[in-house]
Design brief:
Rossmann fold, 2 domains, alpha/beta, eight-stranded mixed β-sheet, 31% helix, 371 residues, elongated, binds S-adenosylmethionine, 14 strands, two-stranded antiparallel sheet
């Protein structure tokens, strides 16, 4: 890793114990391997002391054992603690180990279901959020995963639980890698995708229940695992998106707006002016503004001309399709590798499967090798 990365990228020094490679372990950001193609790697280890160096992964997606549910029968396992608070403290210890590995634009997504104990929900997800917040993490989202089916529950005096949470933690309030555009393109919901995800339930063929569908991981990877990371400075490239003048001709209003624009001889500058004045699209507006944060007189007059020509149809251009026009450039002039996701409670390896499917790299860690 270049000097620039050592200075810029990390918020914490290497954690005690990190970097003590297990036998056979190779640094996953080994440039030769990382450039050529995405890789997957599995390690036996404890999620509280993940044996990786800072920069070995870009983000974490994981589903730890839930409190007092399955006994995995391995020494050092998490999930069988005497109290929910001890369980949460162990998860916080894990998160500190991951924080030491992640760059400052990394994210952690934890899928955690709740547990009934003595008849009452104990709220392990909420307890984890509070403890993580107290430990300095930012909680960016509590995603509700709605399941079509789930574990049988014979109780006649309560409703079956058909949701779980995925909590998005970041080490800092801002500056984490996030590609909402890619997510919206893939999973719909236009410009404002929501924190409620309806995804089917599946059992896989192994002896463990894996209530963790590939689609759930894919959604998170799409949001927060970079497509391209500079092998020199370690910075991810960010998508550059611009609103275009392209409208959907299958919508009658959009078709009419395009006809009118043509008939009245409107130029691309007119359309850009409508978009700069008519919507709060700062990125687009900055291109045609004066730099003062206000639209220049010429932009205002172009927008007025265009609005007069189009009447109410001008609005069509304010929600025209957006497109990727490029990627940010860190200036290293080096190569790029795919983002690397770490799953420290790998289980059957759903995270690795999902990463492989879309060309991201993945490292799975588990105490047990018997999955
Ligand atoms: C709920 S499963 C993970 C399910 C996974 N999402 C999947 O798709 O299969 C939890 C896993 O955590 C592992 N585990 C328990 N305690 C651990 C620890 N301290 N460190 C690492 N792995 C641990 C268990 O062996 C088990 O494989």
């Amino acid at each position: 890793m270049c000097e620039k990365a050592k200075v810029d990228n990390f918020i914490q020094p290497m954690a005690e114990g990190a970097g003590n490679a297990e036998e056979g372990y190779r640094n996953p950001i080994d440039v030769e391997r990382a450039i050529t193609e995405p890789f997957t790697q599995t390690l036996i280890g404890d999620a509280r002391k993940v044996p990786l160096e800072p920069g070995a992964a870009d983000m974490v997606i994981t589903s730890p054992p839930y409190w007092m549910k399955r006994d995995y029968g391995v020494d050092g396992q998490i999930g069988q603690e005497a109290t929910p608070n001890e369980f949460v403290q162990n998860l916080i210890e894990c998160m500190e180990s991951w924080r030491a590995i992640l760059p400052r634009w990394g994210s952690v997504f934890v899928n955690l279901g709740d547990t009934y104990h003595n008849g009452s929900l104990v709220n392990t997800p909420g307890r984890l959020e509070i403890a993580a917040h107290d430990a300095g993490w930012t909680i960016r989202n509590r995603i509700v995963w709605i399941k079509e089916a789930g574990m049988p529950d014979p109780a006649k005096d309560r409703l079956k639980s058909r949701h779980e949470y995925i909590i998005h933690f970041t080490p800092r309030r801002r500056g984490y890698y996030y590609d909402q555009f890619a997510y919206a393109e893939k999973y719909g919901n236009g410009t404002g995708p929501s924190d409620v995800w309806q995804i089917g339930f599946r059992r896989n063929m192994s002896k463990h229940l894996a209530p963790y569908p590939v689609e759930l991981v894919d959604r998170i990877l799409t949001l927060a695992c970079p497509e391209q990371v500079c092998t020199c400075c370690g910075k991810p490239r960010e998508r550059v998106v611009r609103r275009t003048a392209k409208l959907d001709p299958s919508r009658p209003q959009a078709k009419r707006a395009m006809e009118l624009a043509k008939e009245k001889g409107l130029t691309p500058e007119h359309i850009a002016a409508i978009q700069a004045t008519g919507i709060s699209d700062a990125g687009k507006a900055m291109q045609v503004q004066t730099g003062t944060g206000r639209n220049s007189a010429s932009v205002k007059s172009l927008a007025a001309e265009a609005k007069a020509a189009l009447g109410g149809y001008f609005r069509e251009f304010t929600f025209a399709k957006r497109e990727t026009v490029g990627w940010t450039d860190c200036g290293c002039a080096g190569s790029f590798r795919p983002g690397i996701v770490l799953d420290p409670f790998m289980g059957t390896g759903t995270t690795l499967t999902a990463a492989r499917a879309i060309g991201r790299s993945a490292i799975g860690v588990d105490l047990s090798s018997s999955h």
